[in-house]
Protein 1
Amino acid sequence: MKIFKGFLLYLFFIITYESHGQKIITDRPDQTESSSTVPKKSLQIESGMLIKFVEEGDISLREIAIPTTLFRYGLSKVIEIRVANQYINIKEKKHFKRNFRNFRP
């Protein structure tokens, strides 16, 4: 069991050391729109969610984009492939204002 724990600790430090030197460019709350590219043969994954509420007059909109995922893969020093994926759910509500001023029994 001690050997297994030691191996896991060693693996953790190796992974941490290898990933620590990478430069990740993100422009949250949206997906990256940066002019820089990821290094050649590197894969960068951005994932998150976006929630937007809009109210105009008696109508309110709720838009949820989950998950928003962007995959970036470096083909060369200056060329990369980007693949984006997201599911958007939009709900609209109309609020009725009740006016009792002119109410007569």
Protein 2
Amino acid sequence: MISNDVDIETISKLVEIIYLDHVLFRNLKSTDITPSLRKTIGWITKQNKDAVWLIWDKPIHKAENEIDDNASGLVILRDTIKEMIEL
């Protein structure tokens, strides 16, 4: 598991996160719908007690620990994270 403190060492490592994702539904019986268990892999760019910011795509010409301001990724609420593993 990764701590709440993020440093260059943590940012430069890949992580795999398994989490429960929200589900949007329409015209279905609401009691039959459950959160979806998902998995993503990427670099942590920020985290706090409530959430983890993860990018999964970045330019290859950037240094391994350099963060791109225009990245693609997710903000995942900590309460939904089931497992987080450094790769």
Protein 3
Amino acid sequence: MPIPLHAARRRDIYYVAGCKAVEGVVKKKATLRLVRDGKVVHECSGAASMKHFKDDVREIKKGNEFAMQLSGDPPPTYLAEDEIHCIQYDMVKQSIFDYENFRY
């Protein structure tokens, strides 16, 4: 089950997106989706680069600005109002459902 970690809006038009984290945490190695007009345009398993000022970072918390380039060949281009969604998949151990204690 995908767990949304954040949503970010881009600010510039280049191969590198200038973003601001608006929710949660943005992680460099998480699954990233470029969403344009409600449709997924590009999906990758991590960012090629992620910088806060001139420092390379692994994660950014809510409210901070950063630059990000998504991995891919060729790298995607960004337009105004694109969103980058950061998703983390967690492995959950399967268990037997307890029908006796289940309540609606």
Protein 4
Amino acid sequence: MNPGQLLIKFFFIALLSMVSAHADRLLISDYAKIQEDMPKPTLGMTQDDVIEQYGMPLEQVAAVGTPPITRWIYHDFIVFFEESTVIHSVIPYQKNTDNIAPE
């Protein structure tokens, strides 16, 4: 392979990676906005607080580790507890194809 062909290949790969990175940033920023806006349990809430505000979870995953970390799965979010206190809650990523422009 001559240097000209190598340069063209390098340029093409670099161009493709820039396009992919740009698309990923848009999806991530949209997803981050959804994470911020959707109501979900907050740091420090107790399990009783979560049940009172959001009802019973669809599934309660058994505690693991020390201290025990428990996971409750709801339809729109997942809550992580250390013992009986919320340490984190997340919205599982679901690919939304409604806002993706056709190629």
